[in-house]
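Dear colleagues,

As part of the handover before I leave the project, I'm documenting each prediction I ran so the next person doesn't have to rerun anything. This entry is a single chain, and its sequence is reproduced below.
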Amino acid sequence: MCNHITGLALRLEGWLGVENGGRADLWLAQQAAYDLWKARQAGIPIVQRANVLAPLLSP
């Protein structure tokens, strides 16, 4: 099952055609970039940084 954004990207691909810039993966990448930009504009959420254990870093 796909979400509505994925479905829309597939419909755009079918309507425009890949040869005319309608690749669904490019539409999804553009949407993800926009969503990330909007989230950053809203402010970075306050989170507590994870504690990395030293044994995990050594071989």
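The chain has a mean pLDDT of 86. The helical segments are 4-16, 24-42, 54-57.

All the best with the project,
I.
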